[in-house]
Hints:
The protein is 76% helix and 0% strand. With 259 residues, the protein is an all-alpha fold.
Amino acid sequence: MASVPAVLTSEWTKIRTVSSTTWTLIAAFVVTVAMGAALSALFKSRFDDLSATERATFDPTFVSFSGMILGQLAMVVFGVLVVGTEYSSGMIRTSLAAVPRRGTLLFSKIAVAGALALVVGLITSFLTFLLGQALLGDHGTDLGADNVLRAVVGGGLYMGLIAVFSMGVAAMLRSSMLSLGILMPFFFLVSQILSSVPGAKTVARYFPDQAGSKIMQVVPDAMGSDEAPYGPWGGLGIMVIWVVAALVGGYLVLRERDA
């Protein structure tokens, strides 16, 4: 029976030798940093045109993370491909024959890919913040200000958790196309639209992306937005619950169903 270190090494080899997973991580980094820089520069040039409320609640840290809306989609693709590719290629049968303990296989894969997503997320978060503040100039802040370091580290945690959540969903659905068909519209459209609809936004606040993104805010009601009924860490805790639920669901499906 394969040992855990051997399974971890095997999963690392799979991830680094598949070009699609590598490119999705690069895309997450480039899109987040580039869009965050562009919007930071735009906010600086248009700062005087903001309303009095928006200027009073201006959150330079959260503004620099504006690219996370698109960057998280690349993380979703990464998480789905890490798990779903084995099902679409039929390699899952070979993997399960080599590692009969299904929990060991699934959680080794998630541990390796999750750690990689977290490292990329932290690098992306710090660079996005530093570049954004440089472009905001006099309207920017620094890592020594209250709660800013928490928000920047939280940005990396958020990206890592989005990837792990997507892996759990892909393990449940056992299909890359189906997983992407559900997760991409959900994060890009459904969650964003419902968060703006009166009545529905009360529920949308507890979606994983809406709750988790609060960790990146320094000003609670930034830019005149509604104040959430939970704090930054409370929001991240809600997101962790979603991630744990997805992983448990993925494990149960893998344990109970044939490949």
